[in-house]
Amino acid sequence: MVASALCFASMSVVVKWASPQYGAGEIVFYRSLVGLVAMALMLRAQGIAVSTPHPGMHFWRSLSGTLALVLWTFCIAGTTLGTAMTLNYMSSVWMGAILVGAALMARKGDKVGRPDGRLLLAVLLGFAGVAMVLQPWTQGGSANRPDALLAGLASGLLAAVAYLQVSALGRAGEPEARVVFYFALCGCVLGLGTALAGDGLSGHDLRGATMLLAIGLLATAGQWLMTVAYRHGPVLVNAALHYLGIVFGLAFGALFFAERPGLLALLGTTTIIAAGLWATLLRARP
User: Fold this and answer.
1) Fewest beta carbons within 10 Å, which of 93, 200, 220, 266?
2) How many domains does the chain have?
3) pLDDT digits over 127-152, tens only?
4) Above 70 in pLDDT, residue 164?
5) How far apart are alpha carbons 152 and 117 in whole angstroms?
6) Which of 137, 196, 145, 172 shows the shortest CA–CA distance to 57?
7) Which residue from 249, 253, 256 is spatially nearest to 273, judged by alpha carbons?
8) Helix (H, G, I), strand (E, B) or coil at 189
9) What are phi and psi of 37, to 5 degrees?
10) For the chain, percent helix, then strand, then coil, each to nearest 5?
11) 3-state secondary structure labels for all residues of 242-264
12) Domain membership of residue 250 as a residue range
């Protein structure tokens, strides 16, 4: 999980460098294309068939994960790196919100039961942290574009749905390489469609092609490592180490882009991490 967080944070740096030259759809397409080739080779080497007995589960995991990826790529281009990482890592808080919403909408007699007040408090705490990070009352002079911030929030929500599906696929016995293969396949289709619906595919030079290859390799390594971690690792340990991505993102933002988050933003980031860990702890209990 630590290696996965480092891979994704490093990839986000390259995405920010590549954003002036390539659109979000293009970056997702080329990133996914590298992953598709890598996972196809891995499946072949391991003697695992591409066909799956759970096509519906793969569809929803791949669709939600790819949409989250497109939105996050768009968010990175229009916000500071630390903000983009923080919003994407809101997934644990969103998972808690999904469980609270399911409990609130459950009919009397359903097994869902009444919502846990502590989980509701963790969700509210997480969104309070988001408010401190985004500081919407100062957006007039902020370097973060409002549309990019909304995309980041949506990416975190869709990532939560994708992670729930990854866990379900792991319980169903699906190999990691096959899970990542279908995710990459969906990314190729949706990314290419998004690019063609916009300005089309851009031309390449050596710098651009190198960045796209690096994005693909880092993303594929991070995705595979994350899938292994979620399938085999303890939930609470995964959740704690998962948030290292925010720390890496803040450090890389300061190192490569001279981004200096204020004290309130750092407090908000800490609040989101605490809320996410608390929500994960409550979800992990019977």
Assistant:
1) 200
2) 1
3) 888 888 877 666 544 667 889 989 99
4) yes
5) 27
6) 172
7) 249
8) helix
9) -65, -45
10) 80, 0, 20
11) HCHHHHHHHHHHHHHHCCCCCHH
12) 2-284
